[in-house]
């Protein structure tokens, strides 16, 4: 029933609920019990059956236990038999394994058996030679660092000789590189950027193995790049001595154990480094300390110190040499060539260079791996205890080593074959690298011409990359190579020559052409030596006499030297037999363009240049230009013109542009004009004391706003230049339009870093009167032109401008122009113009211009204020006297034909008239003879060749493969054989007593003989010692080194020159020595000469020049203090003979019509002198007066001159006619020290003519 449940029962009654619960339980019990009763019956039945089964199981279990006991006995017997079997198997396997291990060990070590056996046999010999080898290696590490490869080899030879003498055994084939470093390390160095030439590898050895800290002479930065890569993993700290945190960097590197690189030091080091360099370390417990100033710093393992300098030839003190290991890291020709070859391949055959670089890295890794495996194997073999065949790990290592070694060896063999193939492909591009290396080292040589000509290797490599990129492409490899070389050569020439002064640009071009020709074997070394030296080393008395007098001495020596070449071996004989044809050729206006006699017209251009250089040095430049145009191209012969716009394209914000200033040059206007054209602002500051603050401010503003900065006259602010370099090159966030311009004069202390990180250019002003007048009038304004209404103003202004240009242009002619090259500048012109203006404002119209005042102010004050030489002052006053007079206002007035004063009103009209002036001026425009152009050209060529000689490497040999030392040794032998014997002082004294030694001229002779004896003794001692030094018997001192260099260059050694006389070449100097000595010897032993050779005296001067009122500044100081002048001695003799008072006696002279050979007896009073030559004028022997010189005849011999003295009280005989007071100089260089006295020469024209000509008499014209 549905409603019979607990909920309903509880709701009705509690008792009903209980009844309900019971009823449900009973019903449930009934249902369960009905199922359980049958199961209980079944359980009883099954229990009975179980009892029966268990009884049966007990019986069966008893039987099983019996069988198990039987089985256990049998199993025990079986296990014992199997254990015995396993033991026997294990013993067999162990024996077999030992045999296998022994076999593997024998086979594994068999490959090393031969090598180790041979090595063991040599160990005893090596131990015996160890002392000598270690001595050599120690000497190499300690002493060879500062020297080049040749000198290192020489040191090595000397050390070996010492060891042999001291019977210390050493290895004949010792190689410091293989002895001190392994191949794997060498390979790593190569990957890190160290050039692989022998010198660079040796330098790497000294850096890493020497005990002292290294100081690298590293102008190109090669060593610094290598160190940076080598120490990059060790957290290298880079600093400099002038860095504001230098001390902190040093202390951090010491205390943290990091390597420290101090870059770009000068010739002095910071004293704070002394204790570090000297390793004055203080032990404190287990660590070390060092005192830095007043602070102690810990030194941790890992600290290494490297120092570099960019100075190419620094002069370090002995203390620095003792504290550091100085190493010459200057890049070598071969090293740079290999580096450039890598760059070429990287551009042209990138995959080839990539493969090669990977190959080098793999080879380095493999070699290192082989070495490690071998070292580990040897270590295990020596440390294994017990039997080797039982060491499984050793055998396993040996197998791995063997397999790896075979793999590595195969890889190395493959790499060798691959390297051969790669190198063969690379070699095809070597001509490009060779040309690049040649060009770079030529640029380095030019830095010896002027310290400002600095070009960094980084800049050069930039040009090299540009050339590779921009040169014309070609599928043909040879054509492509030619294109690269052509573009590279001109690009380097253009970039470099732009930064040279005008005087050096052509020198660089000539040297570039000749170096390339020598590299391609077109020009031989001996031909190059003849071109630059000529016959300078020859003795005029030792060669065949010249056939005709018209041939100059130097020309003949040049021809004799030239005849040593096969093409010219018959030249002296041909000149002798065909002298008229050669004279006609020589006299032509342009011999280089004329047909050369005796078939020499068929010569190629270079040998034609050699012939022209020997005959006509003044025509050498046009001939050289032709050779350059033919060999290199017309663009090289035409020269380079500075283009500021091109420079702007090349520059960037971190590359300053430096202009080297010269006389009259100033690029300011051009720079400001270009800035205006580009719509940029340009701020200028003239550097000097206190200008640094303004410069910093201007730089800061300009960098932010994109302006240009022009710092002028930076040579006056050198202390700011290092800071400027850092500001420009390291500043961040600089506006892309910012540019930094600098102007400076050449200065030896100008920072090399700044020069090497900048673009350099010169702005030499154009030469000539037209260019000078244009420059002058460009600085004038129309207001200045109209400032005065007087008609005299504009002509006088033009006259002063013409004078200003003339006095500047006259400098280029050398001594014949001005004795001293004065630096006339714009301020002289401005002050003179201002004076003229003031004078015109104040003149009385009736009296007119006071010309004496104008001339005095020009000649003595405005321009004359700069003039220190009396004869230059006379010249300047002559210009003022000749040009500045009333005649200047006439229509017929001309400074020279075609150079008159234009009548103009505006500046444009003046500029138009000036533009119509000739482009090339004759020397006669300046008052000189046309021959002055020859003098100018000759001096230019002489300066160029002298410069080339100066910068030639000092370790080069002479022609024919001879070394410098062997050439000089032969020359020393030759000079010693010809050197006169010493004077015997007792014999000299005896001869003088017989001649009356108290006479003034004999006192003078004694002094001259004493000086000559000192010269002879010095020459003999120097040459004897030099031969011993070359042989290695004595040390090559500084003086002997100077003598060796100068004798090789055919120049006079410094010690000889200081105590003797100047001369153009060593050959002429030695000829003079013989001739001077002959005059003294003949005078001493044969009596007074009829005529005296004026050139042959040390001291020909007159000590007192009363007659001509010359200042004592022109008297040789040494003569005044010590020596008795020749002419003074003559004056004294005349005074004594005639009983004149010495202070009343003055000199007089008369030029005879006789030459030296025509004299038969001496004068009754005074002396005859000869050997004088006129410079700037000729001599008419018939009329005995000055005349214009013939064309091309620079020096005219003067006949014998009779020089005597007279009493000024009595007076001198009147000599009718016009006389020119002509100064006499000992040498062509007209300085106070060379001045002797004036001679009065008769003239048909006014003396002013010869003053403007610059006429003088020279004792020596060589």
TrEMBL record:
For the Dynein heavy chain ATP-binding dynein motor region domain, which residue ranges apply? 188-408
BP-aspect Gene Ontology terms = microtubule-based movement
All residue ranges annotated as the Dynein heavy chain AAA lid domain in the record: 793-932
GO MF annotation list:
ATP binding; dynein intermediate chain binding; dynein light intermediate chain binding; minus-end-directed microtubule motor activity
Carries keyword S-adenosyl-L-methionine?
Answer: no
Q: Give any Pfam family that matches.
A: Dynein_heavy
Q: Where in the cell is it found?
A: Cytoplasm, Cytoskeleton, Cilium axoneme
Q: Can you tell me which residues the record assigns to a coiled coil?
A: 43-98, 349-376
Q: Where is the Dynein heavy chain C-terminal domain?
A: 938-1104, 1125-1259
Taken from the UniProt entry, a GO cellular component term is:
motile cilium
Read off the InterPro entries from this record.
Answer: AAA_9 (IPR035706), AAA_lid_11 (IPR041658), AAA_lid_11_sf (IPR042219), DHC (IPR026983), Dynein_C (IPR041228), Dynein_C_barrel (IPR043160), Dynein_HC_stalk (IPR024743), Dynein_heavy_D6_P-loop (IPR004273)
Q: Where is the Dynein heavy chain region D6 P-loop domain?
A: 654-762
| Domain Dynein heavy chain coiled coil stalk as annotated: residue spans | 4-160
- Keywords assigned by UniProt? ATP-binding, Cell projection, Cilium, Coiled coil, Cytoplasm, Cytoskeleton, Dynein, Microtubule, Motor protein, Nucleotide-binding, Repeat
Family, according to the entry, reads as follows: Belongs to the dynein heavy chain family.
According to UniProt, the name of this protein is Dynein heavy chain 8, axonemal
* Biological source species: Schistosoma japonicum
């Amino acid at each position: 029933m549905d409603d019979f449940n607990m909920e309903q029962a509880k709701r009705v009654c509690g008792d009903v609920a209980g009844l309900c619960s019971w009823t449900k339980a009973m019903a449930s019990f009934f249902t369960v019990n009905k199922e359980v009763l049958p199961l209980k019956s079944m359980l009883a039945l099954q229990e009975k059956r179980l009892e029966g089964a268990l009884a049966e199981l007990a019986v069966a279990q008893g039987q099983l236990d019996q069988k198990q006991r039987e089985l256990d006995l049998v199993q025990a017997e079986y296990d014992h038999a199997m254990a015995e079997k396993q033991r026997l198997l294990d013993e067999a396997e162990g024996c077999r394994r030992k045999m296998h291990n022994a076999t593997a060990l024998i086979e594994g070590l068999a490959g090393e058996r031969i090598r180790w056996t041979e090595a063991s046999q040599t160990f005893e010999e090596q131990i015996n030679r160890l002392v000598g080898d270690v001595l050599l290696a120690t000497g190499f590490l300690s002493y060879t660092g500062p020297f080049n490869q040749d000198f290192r080899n020489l040191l090595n030879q000397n050390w070996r000789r010492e060891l042999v003498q001291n019977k210390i055994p050493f290895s004949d084939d010792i190689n410091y590189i293989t002895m001190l470093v392994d191949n794997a390390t060498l390979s790593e160095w190569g990957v890190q950027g160290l050039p692989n030439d022998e010198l660079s590898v040796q330098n790497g050895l000294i850096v890493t193995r020497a005990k002292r800290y290294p100081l690298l002479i590293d102008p190109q930065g090669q060593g610094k790049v290598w160190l940076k890569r080598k120490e990059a993993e060790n957290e290298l700290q880079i600093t400099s001595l002038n860095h504001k945190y230098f001390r902190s960097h040093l202390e951090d590197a010491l205390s943290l154990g990091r390597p420290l690189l101090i870059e770009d030091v000068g010739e002095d080091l910071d004293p704070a480094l002394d204790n570090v360099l000297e390793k004055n370390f203080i032990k404190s417990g287990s660590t070390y300390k060092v005192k830095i100033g007043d602070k102690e710093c810990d030194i941790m393992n890992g600290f290494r110190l490297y120092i570099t300098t960019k100075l190419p030839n620094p002069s370090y003190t002995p203390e620095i040499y003792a504290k550091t290991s100085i190493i010459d890291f200057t890049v070598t020709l071969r090293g740079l060539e290999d580096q450039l070859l890598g760059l070429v391949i990287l551009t042209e055959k990138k995959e080839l260079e990539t493969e090669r670089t990977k190959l080098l890295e793999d080879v380095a890794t493999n070699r290192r791996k082989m070495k490690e495996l071998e070292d580990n194997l040897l270590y295990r073999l020596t440390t294994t205890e017990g039997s080797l065949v039982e060491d499984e790990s050793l055998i396993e290592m040996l197998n791995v080593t063997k397999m790896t070694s075979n793999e590595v060896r195969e890889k190395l063999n493959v790499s060798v074959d691959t390297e051969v193939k790669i190198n063969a492909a690379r070699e095809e591009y070597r001509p490009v690298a060779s040309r690049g290396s040649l060009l770079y080292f030529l640029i380095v040589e030019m830095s010896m011409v002027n310290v400002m000509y600095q070009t960094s290797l980084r800049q050069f490599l930039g040009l090299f990359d540009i050339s590779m990129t921009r040169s014309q492409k070609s599928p043909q490899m040879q054509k492509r190579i030619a294109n690269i070389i052509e573009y590279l050569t001109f690009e380097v020439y253009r970039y470099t020559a732009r930064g040279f002064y005008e005087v050096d640009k052509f020198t660089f071009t000539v040297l570039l052409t000749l170096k390339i020709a020598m590299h391609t074997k077109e020009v031989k070394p001996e031909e190059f030596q003849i071109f630059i030296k000529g016959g300078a080393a020859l003795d005029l008395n030792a060669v065949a006499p010249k056939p005709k007098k018209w041939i100059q001495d130097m020309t003949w020596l040049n021809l004799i030297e030239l005849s040593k070449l096969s093409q010219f071996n018959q030249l002296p004989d041909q000149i002798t037999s065909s002298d008229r044809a050669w004279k006609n050729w020589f006299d032509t206006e342009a011999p280089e363009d004329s047909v050369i006699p005796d078939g020499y017209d068929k010569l190629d251009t270079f040998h034609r240049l050699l012939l022209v250089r020997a005959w006509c040095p003044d025509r050498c430049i046009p001939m050289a230009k032709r050779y350059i145009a033919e060999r290199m191209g017309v663009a090289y012969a035409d020269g380079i013109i500075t283009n500021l716009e091109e420079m702007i394209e090349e520059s960037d914000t971190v590359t300053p542009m430096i202009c080297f200033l010269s006389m009259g040059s100033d690029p300011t206007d051009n720079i400001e004009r270009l800035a205006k054209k580009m719509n940029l602002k340009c701020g200028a500051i003239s550097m000097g004391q206190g200008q640094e603050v303004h410069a910093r401010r201007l730089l800061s503003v300009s960098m932010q706003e994109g302006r240009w900065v022009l710092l002028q006259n930076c040579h006056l602010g050198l202390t700011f230049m290092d800071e400027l370099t850092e500001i420009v090159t390291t500043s961040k966030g600089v506006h892309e339009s910012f540019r930094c311009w600098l102007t400076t004069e050449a200065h030896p202390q100008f920072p090399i870093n700044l020069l090497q990180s900048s673009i350099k250019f010169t702005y030499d002003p154009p030469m000539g009167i037209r260019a000078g007048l244009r420059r002058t009038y460009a600085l004038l304004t129309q207001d200045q032109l109209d400032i005065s209404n007087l008609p005299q103003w504009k002509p006088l202004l033009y006259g002063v401008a013409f004078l200003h240009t003339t006095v500047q242009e006259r400098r280029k002619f050398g001594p014949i122009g001005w004795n001293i090259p004065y630096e006339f500048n714009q301020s002289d012109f401005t002050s003179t113009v201002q004076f003229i203006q003031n004078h015109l404002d104040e003149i009385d119209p009736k009296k007119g211009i006071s010309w004496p005042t104008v001339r005095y102010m020009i000649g003595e004050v405005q321009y004359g204020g700069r003039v220190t030489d009396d004869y230059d002052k006379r010249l300047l006053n002559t210009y003022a006297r000749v040009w500045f007079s009333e005649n200047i206002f006439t229509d017929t007035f001309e400074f020279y034909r075609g150079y008159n004063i234009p009548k103009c009103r505006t500046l444009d009209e003046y500029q138009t008239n000036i533009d119509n002036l000739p482009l090339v001026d004759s020397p006669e425009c300046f008052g000189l003879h046309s021959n002055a152009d020859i003098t100018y050209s000759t001096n230019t060529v002489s300066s160029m060749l002298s410069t080339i000689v100066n910068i030639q490497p000092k370790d080069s040999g002479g022609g024919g493969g001879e070394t410098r030392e062997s050439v000089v040794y032969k020359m020393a032998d030759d000079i010693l054989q010809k050197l006169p014997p010493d004077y015997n002082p007792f014999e000299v004294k005896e001869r003088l007593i017989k001649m009356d030694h108290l006479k003034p001229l004999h006192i003078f002779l004694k002094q001259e003989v004493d000086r000559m004896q000192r010269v002879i003794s010095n020459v003999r001692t120097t040459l004897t010692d030099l031969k011993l030094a070359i042989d290695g018997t004595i040390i090559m001192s500084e003086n002997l080194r100077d003598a060796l260099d100068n004798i090789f260059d055919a120049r006079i050694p410094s010690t000889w020159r200081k105590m003797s006389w100047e001369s153009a070449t060593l050959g002429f100097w030695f000829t003079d020595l013989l001739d001077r000595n002959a005059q003294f010897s003949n005078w001493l032993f044969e009596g007074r000469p009829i005529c005296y050779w004026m050139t042959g005296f040390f001291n020909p001067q007159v000590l007192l020049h009363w007659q001509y009122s010359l200042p004592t500044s022109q008297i040789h100081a040494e003569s005044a203090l010590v020596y008795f002048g020749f002419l003074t001695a003559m004056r004294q003799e005349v005074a004594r003979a005639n009983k004149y008072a010495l202070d009343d006696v003055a000199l007089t002279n008369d030029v005879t019509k006789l030459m030296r050979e025509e004299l038969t007896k001496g004068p009754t009073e005074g002396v005859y002198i000869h050997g004088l030559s006129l410079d700037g004028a000729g001599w008419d022997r018939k009329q005995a007066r000055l005349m214009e010189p013939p064309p091309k005849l620079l020096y005219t011999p003067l006949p014998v001159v009779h020089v005597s003295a007279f009493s000024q009280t009595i007076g001198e005989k009147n000599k009718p006619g016009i006389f020119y007071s002509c100064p006499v100089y000992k040498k062509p260089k007209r300085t106070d020290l060379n001045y002797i006295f004036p001679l009065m020469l008769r003239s048909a024209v006014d003396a002013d003519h010869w003053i403007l000509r610059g006429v003088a008499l020279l004792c020596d014209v060589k």
